From TrEMBL, chains A, B:
Residues 4-348 form the Isopropylmalate dehydrogenase-like domain. It is found in: Cytoplasm. Keywords: Amino-acid biosynthesis, Branched-chain amino acid biosynthesis, Cytoplasm, Leucine biosynthesis, Magnesium, Manganese, Metal-binding, NAD, Oxidoreductase. Its EC number is 1.1.1.85. The lineage of its organism: Bacteria, Bacillati, Bacillota, Bacilli, Bacillales. InterPro entries: IsoCit/isopropylmalate_DH_CS (IPR019818), IsoPropMal-DH-like_dom (IPR024084), Isopropylmalate_DH (IPR004429). It comes from Lederbergia citrisecunda. This is 3-isopropylmalate dehydrogenase. It comes from the Bacteria. It catalyses: (2R,3S)-3-isopropylmalate + NAD(+) = 4-methyl-2-oxopentanoate + CO2 + NADH. The record marks 141, 187 as: Important for catalysis. Mg(2+) binds at residues 219, 243, 247. Belongs to the isocitrate and isopropylmalate dehydrogenases family. LeuB type 1 subfamily. Transmembrane segments: none annotated.
Length: 354, 354
């Protein structure tokens, strides 16, 4: 197959980890006879410096003409005091909105060889393998009216049936490819929006009799993510709850730099990025962990290109390298062999080429 | 001093743990020459069975004529299928609303002798000693419009300046009695209500130059509660964020049955209750942990009665008993001596009488 991919490396370590991901995808392409065309676009701080806006029109055009987008990370102290429309993060929000990326996927997986770095006891973190499915373009962060003056403030949480249904369906479809279990998180004992959410989950669930499901209140979910995280398979929830819970879940394995994400449009087009930031303090030192970016491209292979074997091969390669005792510099002092960004990338490529 | 206390034992283990707390308060009364008058009222399931409503008028009257309220826990499977206005929990919501209990305090403290039961690594949980201050009567759970039909749902997050200011002031006052540090949690990069919240925090902070403070986004706070919980002193936040974060925080020490709470009116009147539920499965067996209820009354001594030495004495007594190796039945298999509810109560009383 031939696929055209927009590459937005962004700022800081975004560049290095994206380069790493591309090298790995080239290896996948060689092994499975696919041809990837990389089309580079500016985003974030560098875009502000170069063309005066965080998401240039040229970048939008490049993305529109591509089959998927891979993104590194944006931001840095240089732009921290810019007005909000000239902040690197604004580019991220704009691109999600422009392409209607309404379903956010945040997998969290514990690697057995790295349990010692989890803040949780090893026996609690062991076996964690969950997929958080977050609604990304609706709810409290977008509803109107939304304003504040000196004495009063209002935000509005609005959801339409379609917005809820598409993300819930996505979660049930994903569960079929995993362990057939969906936990829907809401606050249906208090919120009207959660009552509609729960009703739609019931309707969708009826169409998936093979998938087990339950409802959990958001505060109970915040507890269970710590006490018994391995019990979760797919979690589906609305935007704000997903924002909080996906970040909470991201730290339970202790390896933030490993975690990928996907933001999808209903037709399967998507943007893929590691969840870590641009880490300007370690940028350019060839020590950043490229695995979050690399695993993000595995999500792209699976979700946007339906290349399942290719995605599995890539994920297995990463897993094998980690289980063999290699890791990057953030895991020093746990008795494992530390590799640079490029060395780690090469190791993963060797695994793919084996 | 003479104090009149409304006692709402509620359902299940609510009764046993409240009885335990009263015995302990009697011991405090003897040692410090205070006289407590206990006035019992019905609440929750038992109230539904007896007078047909979860919060009887007679109970409201008893509370109005008292200096503070102590509460056990409400609910049980017997009432789970009742219509929502006849659910035991409804009585709790009604009492908070009736008495305008707008400031919720949720302390979380790790006991060194029980670090092994935390889901976190011992070195992560060690030293945790935080106070979460949650706004309890405003925000998304109460704003209008709030409705849903088959296709659309709306909830509204509204805050007025006064609602925010009183809880923020409370947090800064508490910090002065603790380690002089306030972390205000919001989502000011997205929500208008959080922008007003942050503005008011800045204004209040200016009046407390001796108190260090910072702002943290709610998703970052959800992460840090797991990765570095001992860094927090006082956390102050709005209702929904507080709902989620206080429950998340409650599990980090692994000893839910130990945790007290207070819900306060601006004038200092308050309701004190353990955070655990009515646990009908273990009710009446004399095995429930009374410490959550007992520590709640220490909060009453401090917050409603300004009996600081008395509160400290009670808390020290609990701590000494725990550090001496005693605990209740939920901590079996960690090599400590298991006491019944009444034995634990007696131990704590002996410490107070020493
Ligand atoms: Mg977030
Ligand atoms: Mg809660």
């Amino acid at each position: 197959m031939k696929k055209r991919v927009a590459v937005l490396r962004g700022d800081g370590i975004g560049k290095e980890v994206t380069d790493a991901a591309i090298s790995v995808l080239e290896a996948i392409g060689r092994r499975f006879h696919h041809e990837f065309e990389w089309v580079y676009g500016l985003l974030g701080g560098e875009a502000i410096d170069t063309v005066g806006q965080p998401l240039p029109d040229e970048t939008i055009r490049i993305c529109e003409e591509s089959d998927a987008i891979i993104l590194g990370a944006v931001g840095g102290p240089k732009w921290d005091n810019h007005p909000s429309h000239l902040r690197p993060e604004k580019g991220l929000l704009q691109i999600r909105k422009h392409f209607e990326l309404s379903v956010n996927l945040r997998p969290v997986q514990a690697f057995k060889s790295l349990l010692s770095v989890s803040p949780l006891k090893e026996e609690v973190a062991e076996g964690v393998d969950m997929m958080i499915v977050r609604e990304l373009t609706g709810g409290l962060y977008f509803g109107e009216p939304s304003f504040h003056d000196n004495d009063k403030a209002v935000d509005t949480l609005v959801y339409g049936r379609d917005e809820i249904e598409r993300v819930v369906v996505h979660a049930f479809e994903l569960a079929k490819q995993r362990r057939n279990k969906v936990t829907s998180v809401d606050k249906a004992n208090v919120l009207e929006s959660s009552k509609l959410w729960r009703k739609i989950v019931e309707e969708v669930a009826a169409r998936y009799p093979e998938v087990e499901y339950d409802h959990m209140l958001v505060d109970a979910a915040a507890m269970k993510l710590i006490t018994y995280p391995s019990a979760f398979d797919v979690i589906v929830t609305e935007n704000m709850f997903g924002d909080i819970l996906s970040d909470e879940a991201s730290v339970i394995t202790g390896s933030l730099g490993m975690l990928p994400s996907a933001s999808l449009r209903v037709d399967g087009f998507g943007l893929y990025e590691p969840i870590h930031g641009s880490a300007p303090d370690i940028a350019g030192k060839n020590i950043a962990n490229p695995i979050g970016a690399i695993l993000s491209t595995a999500m792209m292979l699976r979700s946007s290109f339906s290349m399942l074997e290719e995605a599995n091969t890539l994920e297995t390669a990463v897993k094998n390298v980690l289980e063999a005792g290699f890791c990057t510099s953030e895991f020093k002092n746990i008795g494992r062999q530390i590799l640079s960004t490029t060395e780690m990338t090469e190791k993963i490529i060797s695994e793919i080429e084996r």
